[in-house]
Write a structure and sequence with these properties.
Blueprint (H helix, E strand, L loop, with lengths): L13 E5 L2 E4 L2 E4 L2 E4 L2 E4 L6 H5 L7 E5 L9 H10 L2 E5 L1 H13 L4 E5 L10
Parallel strand pairs: 6-7, 6-8
Antiparallel strand pairs: 1-2, 2-3, 4-5, 4-8
């Protein structure tokens, strides 16, 4: 197998994640996060719909990380994205992080909207 270094020439990759946080470009974001090629910011969850809708000019679709496991997208959230013409691909947050990094390394116009993994008793 040949290994090749991934180059993110026009993107900000997700470096790591863990219980309650995401590390993007050396910065730790606690709680939910919205990441796109040019940067990252906190995301307030499904009630923070406008932040996601504001991404429309910059992305073709979003990867929605729903936490440790894939869960259904709330109907109102999905309807609002559909009405705005923003495609959404739900998946577990770890999968969304990996998929996002692959897609932005290919130059794709994608964002990741992520719910963090929950802390467990072992994390305390």
């Amino acid at each position: 197998m040949d290994l090749h270094e991934v180059i993110y020439s026009d993107a900000v990759p997700i470096e790591s994640y863990g219980p309650g946080f995401f590390r993007i470009n050396g910065e730790v974001i606690r709680g939910g996060a919205l990441i796109h090629a040019k940067g990252a910011r906190s995301w307030g969850g499904y009630d923070d719909l406008q932040t996601v809708l504001d991404m429309k000019p910059h992305v073709d679709f979003i990867l929605l990380g729903t936490g440790a496991v894939m869960t259904p997208v709330p109907a109102a959230f999905r309807r609002a994205l559909d009405a705005a013409g923003i495609g959404v691909e739900p998946m577990a947050s770890p999968t969304a992080c990996r998929t996002y990094n692959v897609l932005v390394s290919e130059g794709r116009r994608v964002a990741a909207v992520l719910i963090p993994l929950e802390a467990t008793a072992d994390d305390a």
